[in-house]
């Protein structure tokens, strides 16, 4: 069971890497826009994170406050991606604050996962 949990953690990290990597490529590549790859990374990280929130027969208690905060941050990232994508479809530019907030919140979510015990 522990091996399966570690595989899900690995998939969760891949989702983060896809989301943050796609964001960083846009941030430092000159065009600040949201892409479908960011949406895929968010979906992978979110689904794997929800799977990790399930009790896996572990001997310790889950930190439900941490799980809740990370879920809220994930939902805010999703909302920002949705807002920015909708503006892009209308031909408008993504607001700089929304664009940079996605990157900051993605890093903050990863940091919470690593540092919050």
How would you summarize the topology of this molecule?
Layout: H1 2-28, H2 36-52, H3 64-89, H4 96-115
Describe the 3D structure.
- The protein is an all-alpha fold and 117 residues long.
- It contains 4 helices and no strands.
- α1 runs antiparallel to α2 (36-52), α1 (2-28) runs antiparallel to α4 and α3 packs antiparallel against α4 (96-115).
- The longest helix is centred in the first third of the chain and has 27 residues, at 2-28.
In short:
The protein is built from 4 helices and no strands. The chain has helices at 2-28, 36-52, 64-89, 96-115.
User: What is the CA–CA distance across the termini?
Assistant: 22 Å
Largest sheet: none
Number of helices: 4
Provide the structure class: mainly alpha
* Secondary-structure element order, N to C: HHHH
Q: In oligomeric terms, what are we looking at?
A: single chain
Low-confidence stretches: none
Give the overall shape: elongated
Helix content: over 70%
**Rg measurement, Å:** 15 Å
Number of strands: 0
Mean pLDDT: 93
Strand content: under 5%
């Amino acid at each position: 069971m522990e091996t399966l949990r570690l595989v899900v953690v690995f998939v969760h990290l891949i989702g983060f890497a896809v989301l943050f990597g796609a964001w960083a490529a846009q941030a430092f590549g000159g065009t600040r826009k949201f892409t479908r790859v960011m949406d895929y990374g968010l979906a992978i990280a979110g689904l794997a994170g929800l799977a990790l929130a399930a009790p896996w027969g572990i001997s310790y208690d889950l930190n439900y406050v941490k799980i809740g905060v990370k879920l809220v941050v994930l939902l805010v990232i999703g909302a920002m991606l949705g807002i920015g994508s909708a503006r892009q479809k209308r031909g408008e530019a993504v607001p700089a604050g929304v664009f940079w907030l996605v990157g900051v919140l993605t890093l903050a979510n990863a940091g919470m996962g690593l540092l919050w015990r």
